[in-house]
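Person: I keep going back and forth on a fold encoding question. Show me how you would write down a chain together with its backbone fold. Please set it down just below, with no commentary around it:
Helper:
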Amino acid sequence: MALLRSPRLSTRVALFFGLIGLLAGLGLTTATYSIARDSLLDQRVSAARSSAFDNALAVKSAFDQALLPDGRLDREVISDSFLNLDMEPGGFSMLTEPYIPLYLQFPASAFPAELLESVNRTQSGQQQFIHDGEPYIGIGVHIAAYDTSYVEAFPLASTERTLRIIFTALLIGSALAALFATFFGFTTSRGLLKPLTRVADAAGDIAQGALDSRLETSDDPELDRLVQSFNEMADAVQTRIEREARFASDVSHELRSPITAMTAAVEVLAVRRDELGDRSQQALDLLVEQVRRFDAMVIDLLELSRLDAGAVDGHDEELDLVEWAQRVTARSGSPDIPVDVERGAPRRAIVDKVRLERILGNLVDNAAHHAGGATRVSIEPGDRVGTLLIAVEDAGPGVAASERERIFERFARGSAARHRVGTGLGLALVAEHAAAMGGEAWVEDRPYGGSRFVVRLPRDRSELST
């Protein structure tokens, strides 16, 4: 199973800020809600206690007025007093034994037994409870003179609604705080990472061959140190690469004359080969082979030196790709290689003919030296808009996945080609010429065994410069 890609640094920073904002918002929400809830409930309970005690005092006064000379109570006076109590809408009250029920709107069982026991035991009490799905706060006051208790229920629905509104507002605020923190983290990280983006862009330009790419100086002392270090490193890399390129060019030029002389001398000896003994003939054949290989390597090195120095001028022209490929394969000594144009592929393109001949010739030669020869050249539609693919297939041993990038490096050889004759520069030239034309080269497996060396090129190179 493919591993999930790690999110970008800016995304991680933004998510971190968002998480911090969310946690801070939730913490603030919890604290604020808790404080608001306690405060509102305290205020509500305080107001309820005050009202309950006032009503209890009014009930006691009614008892005093209802007391008859014979010691009995006039229940009508007490009932009338209940009707005149200052009760909140939605609230209800009652007297405990032996005066249950004097107010018949709610049953006595509406009040929790624990509250009634607490009032009888401690002279007063309070308790929150639920009746018919609605929250209430019950307040009880014992009237000792008449051995009864006044109990009143105050609705908490409005308080609960207020708390829900506060909680919802706090949650929305927490979400907005998290979103703001995420946005702030994203914009901050973009600003902080902008210098690194500049460094990455400059490094990418250098990797693509723009060795003179440098960073502009910064007003920030800390960033200026990074800029100076990067530019010094780029200067060192450019100096080293240019020195190595000059060395390779100088060595190649210096070797050209001796190689020419050696080639001429060997050809003179080859003319008189039949006059030599068997051992001398074998030695001469080996010498001819190595001198020719050495000569080819020097020519390739000179070409690479010119490519490195940008001294190879290109000339684009319109080509019939099939006829051109047939001519190149014929010159390479393989006229029987089939050249196919796949459905949707262009037959004509505007390209650099010289470079393209070098690319195809090297790929055909590579197949001949290491894979028993090319089996097919195909011109295919590009996998990107405005491109085409040229592939050279073979039925050889293939290229290991671990070597598919390295074989396009200079003097690199695949494990299957280590003991074969070659300069190790042919595929490097393919990659360099393809890059100079705005394309790239790679190798992949052939469906039925062997390899496919593929070059992606723009159909019309003039479009790249417009």
Q: What stands out?
A: Confidence is low (pLDDT under 50) at residues 462-466. The first helix runs from residue 9 to 66. Residues 243-309 form a domain with the Helix Hairpins fold (CATH 1.10.287.130). The two ends are 43 Å apart (CA to CA).
